[in-house]
Design brief:
The complex is a heterodimer.
Chain A (H helix, E strand, L loop, with lengths): L1 H12 L25 E3 L14 H5 L5 E7 L5 E9 L8 H5 L5 E3 L14 E2 L1 H4 L12 H4 L27
Antiparallel strand pairs in A: 1-4, 2-3, 3-5
Chain B lengths: L5 H30 L15 H11 L10 H19 L16 H22 L3 H32 L4 H6 L11 H14 L24 H26 L10 H22 L5 H30 L2
Classes of the chains: A alpha+beta, B mainly alpha.
């Protein structure tokens, strides 16, 4: 009998305790910077696309939600003609980010991508491309890679030595 | 005796009671949430007040399914019975001086009779559903209500002795000097427990017992028929709270504020208590429930009646 009254009182005291519910849309949840959320395609510091359309992300993807087609521009830079991620399939595992050799594809701390139509979850390249560099501000693939493109010959990349003259015997 | 404005009182009480009963759904969810350190419904309208409206629209829009194996006429009439019996009881409640639909001289007996009739709704619903869980719920309801009805009536006899009348108005007037909670504290506790059992509220919700019997007697009900059971339950809580107010806490009596406000304050206090009890206590086993009723509550009620009678006989002849 006493225990019943005590239980009632203890429960009543909860009126004055802090509520644990987080009022989500008004008080957004804290997401750590490495949160694996919405996938983006980032750009170089000088504004060019980082993606070189190597297909590694599409191969790494365990659910095959990435589709792209490689092509080359007039400068000799490879880039994807289209780049499509089906977010209704994506499991946000982050393997694409791990596989990417140019830091182009990145996962961001954002999960608010609900849609009323399933079709709207298929993101095209213009939906994926962001204007900034994402998590790697200084990195510029075409500046450090020893690939020849218009305006940058062999040996002109950063920290790259001039190409060896194969016909020379001297070191 | 007929009250001065029966029709006005009828319409007024009906509107107020029905809106309190449906508003209770919101109040209960908010209070339960408060005691569980949550917020509860707070999205629809200010403080989530329109949640009830949204729920009603949802219930109305749902398919009103009658199982092909059910006993159709009984299945349909069962939810109506609970509403009718509970609402009938409100007819004899003196809310404030002059605000009463019918001032019966046997109002207390009428109330007991109506709350006993309410069990038909549950039993018939359980029977007509032709579903073993529903039937078990109906059986439990029948046994529970029968047992608790006995000492519910007996626990009130002390009050009848003190007031010398079955009329609820007379009972309230008899509390001019002192509320009956003081001389009849045991009777109050017994009536509270019996009231909980009568309204099938937690911890006495064995007819529903969602962890054991799906939803008990209303497993097969959907749409607005389920809504009738739902509102009927809240009407029952309102009724029992109002009865506790009238019988033990001096009804509309109180200083400064107008009588109707006092009545509402007291009633809402007990509504809150009912919800607090729901938030706190676990459900007993069925044999424990029956054992309490017959081995503890009934002897206590009888002893209460005997002692009250003896004291009255000895000192107030």
């Amino acid at each position: 009998m006493f225990s019943i009254v005590r239980t009632l009182w203890d429960v009543f005291l909860h009126s004055f305790q802090r509520r644990v519910t987080r009022q989500y849309p008004e008080q957004p949840a804290y997401l750590p910077p490495r949160w694996r959320g919405r996938i983006v395609l980032s750009r170089d510091p000088d504004g060019g696309e980082r993606c070189v359309a190597c297909y590694l992300c599409a191969i790494a993807c365990p659910v095959d939600c990435i589709a792209l087609q490689a092509t080359e521009d007039s400068n000799g830079r490879r880039y994807p003609e289209f780049f499509r991620i089906n977010f209704s399939r994506c499991i946000f595992c982050g393997y694409c980010e791990d596989a990417c050799p140019t830091y182009a594809i990145q996962l961001t701390p954002d999960f608010e991508m609900s849609e009323y139509k399933r079709q709207n979850l298929v993101y095209e390249k213009e939906d994926l491309l962001i204007s900034g560099t994402g998590k790697y501000p200084g990195y510029n693939f075409w500046r450090v890679a020893g690939v020849q493109i218009d305006g940058k010959d062999k040996g002109q990349s950063e920290r790259e030595e001039p190409p060896t003259d194969l016909r020379q015997l001297l070191p | 005796m007929i009250s001065p404005h029966p029709i006005a009182a009828l319409i007024g009480i009906l509107i107020v009671v029905l809106s309190i009963a449906s508003g209770l759904i919101w109040i209960e969810r908010r209070l339960l949430a408060l005691w569980q350190d949550r917020y509860g419904p707070n999205r629809v309208g200010p403080f989530g007040l329109f949640q009830v409206l949204a729920d009603t629209i949802k219930l109305l829009a749902k398919e009103d399914w009658i199982p092909p194996f059910a006993d159709k006429p009984v299945f349909i009439i069962a939810p109506a019975i609970i509403m009718v019996t509970v609402l009938m009881s409100f007819a004899v409640l003196p809310v404030a001086p002059g605000i009463i639909i019918s001032d019966l001289s046997v109002a207390l007996l009428f109330f007991l009779a109506m709350s006993s009739l309410g069990v038909y709704s549950i039993v018939l619903a359980g029977w007509a559903s032709d579903n073993k869980y529903s039937l078990l719920g109906g059986l439990r309801a029948a046994a529970q209500m029968l047992s608790y009805e006995v000492f519910m009536g007996l626990s009130l006899m002390g009050i009848v002795l003190l007031a010398g009348s079955f009329s609820l108005t007379d009972i309230v007037h008899a509390q001019q000097r002192i509320w009956f909670i003081v001389p009849q504290f045991l009777g109050f506790l017994l009536f509270l427990v019996a009231g909980l059992a009568e309204t099938r509220r937690l911890p006495f919700d064995l007819p529903e017992a969602e962890s054991e019997l799906v939803a008990g007697f209303h497993s097969e009900y959907s749409g607005m028929k389920f809504g009738m059971f739902f509102v009927g339950e809240y009407l029952g809580i309102t009724l029992i709270s109002a009865m506790i107010t009238i019988l033990f806490f001096g009804g509309w009596m109180g200083p400064v504020l107008p009588p109707i406000v006092w009545f509402l304050i007291k009633t809402f206090f007990f509504l809150g208590l009912f919800i607090l009890i729901r938030a706190s206590l676990p459900r007993p086993r069925f044999d424990q429930l029956m054992a309490w009723a017959w081995k503890l509550m009934l002897p206590l009620a009888l002893a209460n009646l005997l002692v009250t009678g003896a004291v009255l006989l000895a000192f107030y002849r």
